[in-house]
Fold each of these.
Amino acid sequence: MSVKFSEVLNFMRGKTIDVRMKSQDDFFVEDVISDSRDVKPGTLFACITGEKSDGHKFVKSAQEKGACALLCEHEVNCDLPQIIVEHVRDYLGEISSLVYNHPSSKLLMVGVTGTNGKTTTTYITRSILQAAGIRTGLLGTIIESDGVNEKDADRTTPESCIVQRQLANMVKNGCGACVMETSSHGLFFGRLKGALYDVPVFTNLYPEHLDFHVTMENYFAAKKLLFTNYTKPDYLGAANFDDEWGKKLLAEFPGKLRGFGLSEGASSRVINSKTSIDGTELEIFTEGFKNLTLHSPLVGDFNIMNTLCAVTAMRGRVDDEAIVKGIANVPQVPGRLERIDLPNGACVFVDFAHTPSALKSVLSVIRKLSGNERKIISMFGHGGGRYQQNRPELAKSASEFADEIIITSDNARDEDPAKIAEAIASGATIPYKTILDRPEAVKFGLDNLKPGDILVITGKGPEKFITIKGEKIPFCDAEAVKAWRDAH
């Protein structure tokens, strides 16, 4: 995976502000990197101007590590060849795709966007593809997998040069497909540039990240970029027919998206379902196909929608036998209604739900499956620097389905955890207790569970750190629960 620098220059002809070179000698570019700490010989170093750091300040370090050229936004005092553009991110993905030999063109690309359900939908979709015998990479909130190696994800959608490198690794490792979450931030900042998708998927849209996008219209516009800017010519995707924003997409892209939902009019819909604590039985109708009867180990109405979404996206891409097998073998998604049984007959669910609608979905499912005879304790906080209006709404959602609330900290970041908790508490209409130290809150909740009780810990899902004042403190809800269980 390498190209001559002259090929990069030829690709960028007419797109640059300037090119600065002290020599006309050609050379090979073997890698594209935006973090100077990862630079190695043969690297084109991309100087990204971000909110917290400026890559131009790390050119010296990159040069010392063997960088062969720069992609930058202004001239830098060094001897390296410099491609100067107005905004590095506008071209980083496409240059990376060129260097890595256009990997997305060699993969069946599935991109899932929306507010809720992205992670679970990607896991289900990957399970279907792998049941069809297609080795499949996965990029998302929880893990990055190139088909052979797997690691914890740093962010839902990484920088475009990382995305392209991961896609190239998937091709190298024999993958035939990639399934990935595509966040609104990733789409807005162009982290998907250089990638094109065969199957773009839209799950739903609820108020979230409005501290950044400000309005739902802006939030939707960022999500819509997946369909307008990042699709292959013959793409066929899926969008939620039951969601008002999904309907907008279906109307705007007729014939290119299948509508899935529970209501009449959806071209792919559930016609029968039965869910219990042990799993879900489904019968799915899709126009142009025979009905499918499926069994999934996942529970809850929202997982019915996640399953329907994945099935709709994959029908016609793989045979029905693979879909049936893939749904039956869906693995437990870490931090997505992850159940942990305790020795005394109580149980814990750990889930990533961090919006009022997501919390309501989780708690309503657990209440429905457990009945009114079991006590439900809802534990959660809210992230600092996030949409503050959600804080009392979270407590209102919990009050509707739980019996008690334990308010704790989430990733408070630069905010005061006590003030976040106070804002949450203002929406509570059932008994609540505030324990700001999350490890102590989890221990308190576990220590006080009686047989049959259910503790629902939400907000962080599989995350392994708590971020406060720039410090990352190791902690994982599920790991803490399992450690307590094993000690008792």
Amino acid sequence: MASLLDIIPQGERFAHHRPWPRFLVTVEGWCYAAAEIARGRATLSGLWGDNSGGPMVHMAMLDDTTGEIAVISLPCPAGRFPSVGALHPPAIRLERAIHSLYGFEPAGAPDPRPWLDLGFWDVRFPLGANTATRTDQAPYAFLPVEGEGLHQIPVGPVHAGIIEPGHFRFTANGETIARLEERLGYVHKGIESLMTGATIEKAARLAARTSGDSTVAYGIAFAHAVETALCIEAPPRARYLRALMAELERLANNLGDIGAICNDASFSLMHAHCGILREEVLRAAEACFGHRLMMDRVVPGGVAGDLPPQGPDLIRSLVQQIRLRFPPLVELYDNTASLQDRTAGTGIVSAEFARQFGAAGPIGRASGRGFDARKMPGYPPYDQLDFAIPVLTAGDVNARVWIRIREVEQSLNLIEQILVRLPDGPIANSLDNAAAAGEGLGLAEGFRGDVLVWVKLDGLRVARCHLRDPSWFQWPLLEAAIEGNIVADFPLCNKSFNCSYSGHDL
């Protein structure tokens, strides 16, 4: 396969975009790149709008073989751009979001319906150059369904228990699901609008709140983007502390997900025990970093606080306790036939879909796609640590559980290595002595997969920032995975995905 850069027709290269290149392309170049992505020559990593320097759309592409990333940009002064989704379905919802926020029209798009704009906003196209006054919006048109014996089951957006809102429209024949259609956007917070003009400090706090269960991952991705834009680096000790927090976050979430999946298969004992272990992780995080979720602990330039003197011993004790108590739970899961009957063969995501949608995290790895941003393109200190990326091919709920089990084991190993190798020294570098501001692209591996952040700075303020959660490419796969399963297995499939509503809805 040719290098990613080789497939992009030559265009003007932006001198201050780091660490990967950004090119200005023509309509022909944009369409050519979209076609190459559709052929599998690269993976779509992001697609977003921009009005900070005139109407423009940007597309990030990843070369899966080298980890090389490139961003191409297309001016759209008339408010139109050629649809990528017409050739590559993973782009469809991203284009619908661009239209909801900016009013830019993806010409030739197969699905022109609004996405984030549910008709509740005071204005239309709030990030566009000229916001439009809100007018009556036609009711949302769900996809038509035809066939004998079919009926529809609407679920949400309000759900039982403490859960974020999202609407799911099932079409079923008896108990068998023929189609699932999602409607999201109910947790839209306007984060990218709030970012515009914000100081780096304020923007970092906003980034950390995009999806609270991934606050460390978002903090790291945002910090990477700002630091590359400013040509600075975090001190070595700060990098190791970031990795320590990231693995604690991954550990807590994977333990919680394993228990919650089992609970949705009516095996509450696993849920209880995994919940206890997750609580132990959160308590250790609070004792060591001052916050159960470690929110606002990662900052551009480094970290906000150091480990207390007792911190390493607390974390070693935590690791020892999990190593003692987790293996019997794994054995219990593996040897409970009634549980395996629910998870094995349920909610299968094919390897083809995982590759096409660039699925990351447990969803991608359970279906054969072993991408992990810590390995490729990679970032410190993971290049100095020894760990494996578990990959399975069954693509079902059971495989996604086992990926999380192996991730727990890898996180425990990584935490021990980090504590052994943790260097002395400062924990942050000042941004005040940074070089002239530019643009930066940051990537970090969260427990759901890779988080991408693109930032354009104006001095030490944000001119434009885009945050892309891995859930953007995972929610559509849930629709595919549930087809042919029974309605009662939807909660199980949904929990095995555990996509973020908040991170998706921005």
Amino acid sequence: MPYCNNCGAKIVDGAKFCHKCGSTILVEHKETDNQRRQEFAGNVIKCPACGSEIPSFTAICPSCGHEINSARVSSTMKDFTSQISQYDIAIAKNPDGPKKGWKSWGKLKKFGWVILNIYTLCIPLVIYLLLPCLGISGRSVLTAEEKAKVQFIKNYPVPNDRESILEMLLFIKAQISSLTSGKIDRNVSRWIHIWKNKADQLYERAEILFKNDKIANDAYESILVSEKKVKKSLFIRLIIVVALIVLFAVFIFFRGGYGEAIKKVNATFEWPASGIALQVPEPPTDKGKIEYNDDEQFWITVRGIDQNQYETYINDCKEKGFTIEGKKDSISYEAYNGEGYHLNLTYPRSSAELRIRIEAPEPMDNIQWPKSEIAKRIPTPASSYGRFNWETDHGFSLDVGNTTKQDFSDYIDACIDAGFTVNYDRSDTYFEADDAEGYHVRLEYEGNNTVYIEIKKPEKEDE
């Protein structure tokens, strides 16, 4: 039994090509150097009735109309189809190729892949499915037998006569037709691509040697139609897969609350035509949400505000009178206007949101200082304009208006003189201390000439 000169594999008797690597088998000739041989480019076929030359693949003689019924298969096609059959038998005996893709991954990698797709709405999975279908990723792994068949098809030398070229085109057409009649997948698409490349070579040769041949044109057109059918089928399947993934992603998107977040970002508001909101200018955009709106407070969050718009809005508020005790830092501005309305603006740059808060002044009137024993422990303030917040046997608190910061400082000194010197804490706007008997006083300058005063009995007496 002979062996392949290229790979060393055993060769079946009479085979002209290696079934493993596709190499041509060298056959020793017994002819001597002084022997002459004649070579023919092809057989000349003549009509048995009139003797006229007729082209291959002709069923009726064009000269006399005699029916040609002695069709035969050329030796080229016999060799080719015989070798293809051997490859198909070898492939059938070893159907399982090397593992690839998901099958080749370990458990840890598979688990990581699932977690990644859960947290990224299956975007990596979409890419994984798209790349092979679009031909961007590498081809699937071939077995050794499949590689040998591919090389054989690619390198098989087809003679330049019309009969051999047409027989080969018709054979390829039949192969592709058989592939498309079953289940269409990437493997079918790959083999159609291989056969179609061979058909391209043959058709280019046919156009050079016998241009516009009807048989060649029809066979090649049929091959193109089959290829388009496969591409269309894979494309439709791809669209269905992508659509399912998109629907799943949309479901996860809205199930996870992302949809509500988008609605929140794109929400708009209508600026009030009356009420406390009219104390400040209208913001530069209508994107955002009114959080609270009544006669005492107005809160709103305005989105899509840049730094320049924020600075401009502060200036607009100042023009509306919010300049009293104005304080500004890197992310906020607050001030009062002449009517006592308190404005607070907050602008965290990272969120591009402007938070506007307006508070109406507390209603005040003339008050009478309590005559209780606990009230006698602290000085009576200079202003009698204010309002009580609460009053019980254990203490009371009130807001006193028409009190400047200097008045507030003087009142703190008066409390210290009254004996509130234990554990005291003092600043320009705050004071807190106890007296010797444990009575606790808390003073706070609230702004806009308003002071908060609170006094409580010691806890032991409360019990």
